[in-house]
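Open question from group meeting: does this chain pack into something compact, or does most of it stay loose? Before anyone orders reagents, we agreed to write out a predicted structure and look at it together. Recording both the input and the output here so the notebook holds the full record.
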Amino acid sequence: MDEIGSNTAQGLSEREAAERLKFEGYNELPSADHRNFLHSLLDVFREPMFLLLTASAAILFAAG
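Structure tokens returned:
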């Protein structure tokens, strides 16, 4: 832990935390592109479970 400049017993000081926040930004994953409703709906239709349920319903409907 010494290579990143923190003390494991006390952690970062307020000043160090503020400097890292300014330099590195927030600790969060980059967000994906904004998806619209149609794109999300198409992803649902491509799900294997949805396709399996749809095929099963079609077979049951055709069988009577």
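Observations to bring back to the group:
Residues 45 and 54 are 10 Å apart (CA to CA).
The mean pLDDT is 85.
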